[in-house]
Design goal:
This protein has a domain of 66 residues. The chain contains five helices and two strands, in the order αββαααα. Strands 1-2 form a two-stranded antiparallel ribbon. The model has no long low-confidence stretch (mean pLDDT 88).
Length: 116
C-alpha cells in the first residue's frame, strides 16, 4: 500500500510540474493511434544574457564619463581629477578609473553640441 501511495505522489508531482509548464502555452498532437497528446511549449528565456549585460554596463560607464566631461568641459574635468588624485587611496583609484580615455573623449565630443 505504501508503494502505491508513493507512486501516486510521484505521478501527482509530475503532473503538477507539467501543468505549471503548460500555463505558458502548449501544443496538441494526434498520434497514429488517435491519442491526443498535449505537450508544453518550450519556453524561450527572455532577458539580457551575461555578455549583453556586461556590454551594456560598459557602455553606460563610458556614457556617464563622457556626459560629465562634456558638461563640465575638459579643463574643469582635469581640475576635478587632479583634486581626486591628491586624495586617499580610493580617491586616487577613482581618478584613474575616471580619467579621460579615447572612448570617453570621442563620446564627449559627440555629446558636446547636444548639451550646449
Amino acid at each position: 500500500m505504501v508503494e502505491t501511495h508513493d507512486h501516486f505522489t510521484k505521478r501527482l508531482g509530475k503532473l503538477g510540474r507539467k501543468h505549471e509548464k503548460m500555463t505558458h502555452g502548449y501544443t496538441t498532437k494526434v498520434g497514429k493511434d488517435g491519442l491526443i497528446t498535449v505537450t508544453p511549449k518550450a519556453r524561450r528565456v527572455r532577458g539580457v544574457s551575461g555578455i549583453r549585460l556586461l556590454l551594456l554596463a560598459g557602455f553606460g560607464f563610458f556614457a556617464i564619463k563622457a556626459f560629465m566631461l562634456a558638461s563640465t568641459g575638459p579643463d574643469a574635468y582635469a581640475d576635478r581629477l587632479a583634486a581626486l588624485d591628491s586624495g586617499t587611496v580610493f580617491e586616487r583609484a577613482g581618478a584613474k578609473v575616471m580619467g579621460v580615455d579615447p572612448i570617453t573623449e570621442r563620446l564627449a565630443h559627440l555629446m558636446g553640441p547636444i548639451l550646449r
